[in-house]
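Lab notebook, design round three. We kept the backbone fixed and only want residue identities now. Task for the bench partner: fill in a sequence for the structure below.
Input structure tokens:
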């Protein structure tokens, strides 16, 4: 018999035994995991019928989730500002990663980061245009209909805010890592538009500008524009929603979130780096930090079990998490169940895509003892997610588990599992 299959069967069998025992005192066989009834049988031997959800105009037109599904976004605690504030502005809003399944973040739960607290513009798509000018052979202005006539692509891509960093203060994965999400974006490759305009020989950078009250604008290399940037009008099968850039935004796969300009209306092709409002505060004179200021990751996080959750006694559990990297597809993920002393290979739930979240799992039989669980990933270009000790050594600073990481924080995040099954921040 195949050894891998035998091993997996033994793990599940052991988990069932630890969870409830294989036999009862009377000799009857105990129900398998998940088979026990959690409510009484109705008279006559049939289970109680569930109430019906009546049809409605709203259900027909757009649908709604079950009332038993309660996942919601929260105002990101690191910013320390209410959202919305007294003026109606929304700031940074974190997605509930602990409740995610799969790799696509539902549009309604996608994280949101604003441009300096700007109001969300209410844009009529029939009036919106995108102009490309600067060091091009001909300046062109595209309407939304123009863009939708051109060849389109649909690709998964994560977006992550630079503020997505962790220390000992956060209680849940939503607080520590909730400023990242992954969606399917649909639109036109920016390279298609630039080829229509024609690039001049000295075109090396481009500036993408949005239509917010406080203009979002970022400088990026023209090589990135010609590689994989998308001018997106679609998100998860529908038009991009206002919080995420309706009617048009740029997706810059793998780059820090602020580069993914929302409500995009102008692209200027230039021959040097332009300092814009978004760029101010995102640069550093230190050469090492400047080199790491664009690309995210590699990064991973265990979402279940994670902070605020509780294990129901010793037994079998699948450790679940997400991994991603701006360097390309995630190649491998490892999980430690002993505080980082040893590492074990995890399994992907689907083939990892470039610059997208990858979901992983690791089978674990918890013995009821206190421990720490961690994950780390390696991407397709060989970058491995560092521990906080390695990051401190890189920056040549004294190591403290709870200090603020320089640059973009992609360090390993530990979760502490107590004897009572409670899970808390391992850095606290």
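Proposed sequence:
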């Amino acid at each position: 018999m195949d050894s891998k299959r035998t091993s997996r069967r033994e793990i599940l069998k052991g988990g069932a035994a630890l969870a409830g025992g294989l036999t009862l005192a009377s000799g009857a066989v105990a129900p398998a995991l998940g088979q026990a009834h959690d409510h009484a049988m109705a008279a006559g031997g049939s289970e109680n019928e569930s109430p019906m959800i009546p049809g409605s105009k709203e259900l027909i037109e757009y649908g709604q989730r079950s009332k038993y599904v309660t996942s919601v976004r929260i105002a990101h605690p690191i910013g320390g500002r209410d959202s919305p504030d007294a003026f109606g502005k929304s700031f940074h809003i974190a997605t509930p990663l602990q409740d995610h399944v799969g790799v696509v973040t539902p549009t309604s739960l996608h994280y949101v980061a604003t441009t300096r607290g700007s109001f969300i513009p209410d844009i009529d798509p029939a009036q919106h245009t995108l102009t490309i000018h600067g060091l091009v052979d001909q300046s062109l202005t595209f309407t939304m209909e123009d863009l939708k006539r051109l060849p389109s692509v649909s690709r998964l891509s994560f977006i992550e805010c630079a503020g997505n960093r962790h220390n000992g203060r956060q209680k849940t994965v939503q607080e520590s890592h909730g400023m990242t999400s992954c969606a399917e974006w649909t639109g036109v490759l920016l390279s298609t538009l630039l080829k229509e305009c024609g690039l001049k020989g000295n075109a090396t950078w481009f500036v993408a500008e949005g239509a917010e009250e406080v203009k979002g604008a970022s400088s990026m290399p023209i090589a990135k524009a010609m590689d994989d940037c998308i001018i997106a009008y679609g998100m998860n099968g529908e038009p991009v929603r206002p919080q995420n850039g309706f009617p048009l935004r740029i997706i810059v796969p793998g780059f820090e979130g602020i580069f993914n300009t929302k409500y995009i209306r102008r692209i200027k092709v230039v021959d040097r780096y332009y300092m814009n409002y978004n760029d101010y505060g995102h640069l550093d004179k230190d050469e090492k930090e400047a080199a790491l200021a664009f690309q995210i990751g590699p990064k991973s996080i265990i979402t279940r079990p994670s902070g605020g959750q509780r294990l129901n006694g010793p037994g079998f559990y699948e450790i679940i998490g997400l991994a991603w990297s701006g360097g390309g597809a995630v190649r491998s993920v490892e999980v430690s169940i002993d505080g980082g002393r040893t590492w074990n290979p995890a399994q992907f739930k689907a083939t990892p895509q470039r610059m997208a979240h990858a979901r992983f799992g690791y089978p674990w039989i918890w013995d009821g003892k206190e421990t720490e669980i961690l994950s780390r990933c390696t991407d397709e270009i060989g970058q491995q997610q560092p521990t906080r000790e390695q990051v401190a050594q890189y920056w040549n600073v004294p190591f403290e588990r709870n200090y603020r990481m320089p640059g973009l924080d992609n360090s390993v995040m530990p979760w502490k599992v107590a004897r009572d099954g409670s899970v808390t921040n391992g850095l606290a």
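Keep this in mind before ordering anything: The longest helix spans residues 3-20.
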